[in-house]
Amino acid sequence: MLKKIIRRMLCMQPAAWYIFRGGLQLCAVLLLLCFVSLLKWGGDMYNAAYYYKLAVSFNETAQAVLLIAVLFSVIAEDIVS
Question: Which of 12, 44, 53, 79: disulfide with 48, CB 3.0–4.6 Å?
Fold first, then answer.
């Protein structure tokens, strides 16, 4: 099953692959920003709660971006092929 999925991903159209790769790159940047915000937060809920909330929002945004990128790459794959 996994072999089938990987083979299908490697045969993607260039437009769909570009959307998927761009979504992964943006997701990676957002998760890096999440990690930096958590390092800046330091566990202090009284004085630095802003950084914790910022990290949570970066994490949620990364998940949404990845979901949207996968959906759009599937749509682009169906339209092009």
Answer: 44
pLDDT in tens, 30-58: 999 999 999 988 888 888 889 999 999 99
CA distances from 43 to 1, 14, 34, 35, 46 (A): 42, 44, 14, 13, 9
Exposed/middle/buried for 7, CB within 10 Å: 0-12, 13-18, 19+?
exposed
Neighbours of 65 (CB within 10 A): 18
For residue 78, the one-letter residue type is D
Other C-beta atoms closer than 10 Å to the C-beta of 31 total 17
